[in-house]
Amino acid sequence: MSLLRKALQSDDLTATDNLVEHGLDSLVATRFIADLRKQLGISIPLVEIFEVENAREFTESLRELLTEQPTTA
Hints:
Number of strands: 0
CATH class: Mainly Alpha
CATH architecture: Orthogonal Bundle
Strand content: under 5%
Number of domains: 1
Largest sheet: none
Order of helices and strands: HHHH
CATH superfamily: ACP-like
Radius of gyration: 12 Å
Oligomer: single chain
Shape: globular
Structural class: mainly alpha
């Protein structure tokens, strides 16, 4: 959630707030996805963030994506 707040420059973002209404656009999403990759080592398609309305839905989508990805040992 803190990465989303940082990307959207919105300290008052809650889990159920609409991301687009808080300023999500393609540039912000691209930076956010890059931050996820850099800070957490998570790589997801950019389109994933636009398929959800809020942070809670994004987190659920992210969990599903991570569960589907094969692990490397």
